[in-house]
Structure formats: C-alpha cells, structure tokens
C-alpha cells in the first residue's frame, strides 16, 4: 500500500512539473546591437540570454538550438533588428517571445536597451532603456538591471545607486583668472624704517625719500577651484627703491582668495626682505634718531674703553650694518579689471614688522587663461 502511495506521489509531481513548465512561455534571444563597447554582438547576446534565463520568466532557447533553427531556415540575424524580421525568426523557432536589444557607449555613459517582442501579435510588449556610468567591465550587471526593468522585476537599490547614470546639470565653461605677470608700483615707508631712510648716510641713514618705486613679478597657482571661487598660493618678488640707488629685494608668500566673477581678491602671508642691520644703542635708552649710536662707537671712545656700555644693545636698520634677512607680514587686497582678454590686477598692500611698514599700491597685466 505504501509503495502504491509513493508511486502516485511521484507521478503527481512529474505531472505537476510538466504542467508548470507548459505554462511558462518560451523565448529566444537574437541580434543584440553593440557600438563603442568592448564586447562583441555574440557576447552581448550570450549575456542577455544568461540574464533572461536567470529571471525564471521564460523557457529560453539555448544558443545551439537557436543556431540550428537559423541554419535550417537560412536566416541571417546579423542585421535582424526590426519587428518583421524578429517575428519571422520567432515563428520559425516556435517561441512566444523574441528578446533583443542594444549596448551603446555614449561618452560619459553606457546605454542598454531590452525589447520584448510578442511573436503572435508582432508587437513589442515592453521596451526598457537604462543609462549607466561608463564602466565596460560591469556590463553584465547593467544588462541584469535593464532586463529586470523590462520584465517588471524590482532591482536592488544599491546596484542602481552604483551603476545608473544620473544626469548632472550642464557646467558652463568657467574662465579662471591667473595673474602671473609683472608688477610695478609705489610704496611709502613708515615707522623707524622711514625715519632711517631719510637720515644722512653719516648717521646710518640712506639719504633717501620714504616714497619709493617697486618693480617685480608675481607667480601664482590655484589649489582649489569651485565655480567662480579660487584659493591661491601666490609668490611675489620685488625690488624697492632702485631709483634711489637702493637694493632692497623682498619675497612675499601669500595665501590668496579670489572671485573670478567680479575679480576681487584678498591675500595674506609672510614676507622676507634683505636689509642692512647694525647693532647699536640709544643714548640713555631714549629712542630717538639723534640718540642712535653703533655699538662699536662706545668701545672706540677712549673714555669708555674700560667702562661697560650701560645702554641696552639692540638692532636697527643702518646703512653701515651688515645685510641680513628680515621677516614680516603682509596683507593685500585688490581687484582685477578686464579689457578683452587682458587682465589688469590692481592691489593695495601693507607690509610690516617691528621696525616699520611699507604701505603701497601696485598694478600689473597678463592674458586670461582658460581651464
């Protein structure tokens, strides 16, 4: 009795399996068009057949079975992309649906389409098109996403986020300002430096006026560009007071911020200057140009040869001193004016240290650069 029941169950299972199989429509894949991708039409057709089979929605014709049908009926599917040809192939193969599509490289993206043709009605049941980021090595995943879309199967959101191409708003070309080029201007020297510059050379001055010309060059590079905003590293080399027989070179290294839209900019950073510096003291420690003396003057005076100098020894700019490197800080603000492709940067600056300051105005010119 038990053997009889088991036999009936087996027969029922086989019958149910055949019944379910009969209910699943048949389908065949042919003629997948490719352009600009690293995959041949034959391989694209195989990928589509694999992904179609994995959905479980159809009994899919094997590639060899399909080749047999095509050879028997002398059908060339290399150009069989239209409904008429696909319907004819479907009738010869005896399938319910014909599946075809395309894979195309369109620059920034890969576009895949899947078309499901109903052979009986000779019309498309579904056409699905999806745009993906241009990653040739992941075409099978892209085919899977598009096939699922065509057959109404929900796709994994993570896959969609990683591979689907989302259109970005067009970016208009931006012309960035690059102000590499010569600079020239004027500066006023104030504080102790300004007073020393005006002193006679015999007193350690330079016998010059505190209003001096400047000539130099600016180098710059952008380390951040976003829209019309630029963050810059700027280097400025200047010679000051050449017309007064002074050799006063300086270097400024600035961190700058500029708007390419309106040309306004701000910069700040350290500055380094070569200047003649001497050790000395102020008589009775009273800070006054008339009271300044070199340290050597105290020791060269026979009356003081055995007496320690009671005054505080300090350093100051002096034409009789040695050339040394001085550091300071500079602030600059400016605006770039335009005349066609010509840039005309105009900047006001303040450079200072404990000995005094330079307050000036400079301008230059260069040609607009496009990035």
Descriptive notes:
This protein is α+β, with helices and mostly antiparallel strands. It has two domains: 24-163, TolB, N-terminal domain (Rossmann fold); 181-367, Porin (Beta Barrel), CATH 2.40.160. Helix content is 25%, strand content 43%. The chain has eight helices and 16 strands. It has helices at 2-23, 41-55, 63-72, 83-93, 139-151, 157-163, 191-198, 295-300; strands at residues 26-35, 59-60, 97-106, 109-118, 123-133, 181-190, 211-226, 229-240, 248-259, 264-282, 292-294, 314-317, 322-339, 342-353, 356-364, 366-367. An eight-stranded antiparallel β-barrel has the order 6-7-8-9-10-13-14-15. A hairpin with a 2-residue loop joins strand 7 (211-226) and strand 8. Helix 2 (41-55) crosses helix 5 (139-151). The longest helix is centred in the first third of the chain and has 22 residues, at 2-23.
């Amino acid at each position: 009795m038990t053997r009889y029941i088991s036999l009936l169950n087996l027969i029922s299972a086989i019958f149910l399996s055949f019944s379910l199989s009969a209910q699943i429509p048949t389908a065949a894949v042919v003629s997948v068009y490719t352009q600009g991708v690293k995959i041949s039409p034959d391989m694209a057709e195989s990928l589509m057949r694999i992904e179609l089979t994995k959905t479980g929605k159809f009994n899919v014709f094997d590639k060899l079975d399909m080749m047999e049908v095509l050879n028997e009926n002398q059908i060339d599917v290399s150009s069989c992309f239209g409904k008429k040809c696909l319907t004819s192939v479907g009738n010869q193969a005896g399938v319910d649906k014909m599946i075809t599509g395309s894979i195309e490289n369109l620059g920034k993206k890969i576009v895949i389409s899947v078309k499901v043709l109903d052979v009986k009605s000779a019309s498309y049941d579904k056409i699905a098109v999806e745009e993906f980021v241009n990653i040739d090595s992941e075409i099978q995943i892209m085919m899977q996403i598009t096939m699922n879309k065509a057959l109404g199967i929900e796709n994994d959101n993570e896959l969609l986020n990683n591979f689907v191409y989302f259109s970005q708003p067009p970016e208009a070309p931006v012309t960035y300002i690059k102000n590499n080029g010569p600079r020239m201007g004027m500066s006023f020297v104030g504080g102790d430096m300004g007073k020393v510059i005006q002193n006679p050379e015999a007193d350690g001055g330079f016998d010059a006026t505190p209003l001096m010309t400047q000539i130099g060059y600016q180098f710059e590079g952008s380390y951040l560009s976003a829209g019309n905003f630029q963050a810059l590293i700027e280097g400025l080399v200047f010679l000051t007071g050449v017309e007064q027989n002074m050799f006063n070179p300086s270097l400024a290294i600035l961190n700058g911020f500029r708007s390419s839209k309106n040309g306004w900019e701000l910069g700040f950073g350290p500055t380094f200057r070569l200047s003649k510096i001497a050790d000395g003291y102020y008589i009775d420690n009273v800070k006054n140009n008339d009271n300044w003396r070199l340290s050597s003057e105290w020791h060269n005076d026979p009356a003081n040869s055995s007496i320690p100098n009671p005054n505080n020894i300090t350093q100051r700019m002096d034409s009789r001193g040695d050339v040394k490197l001085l550091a300071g800080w500079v602030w600059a603000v400016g605006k770039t004016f335009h005349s066609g492709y010509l840039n005309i940067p105009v900047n006001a600056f303040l450079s200072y240290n404990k000995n005094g300051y330079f307050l000036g105005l400079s301008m230059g010119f260069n040609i607009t650069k496009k990035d």
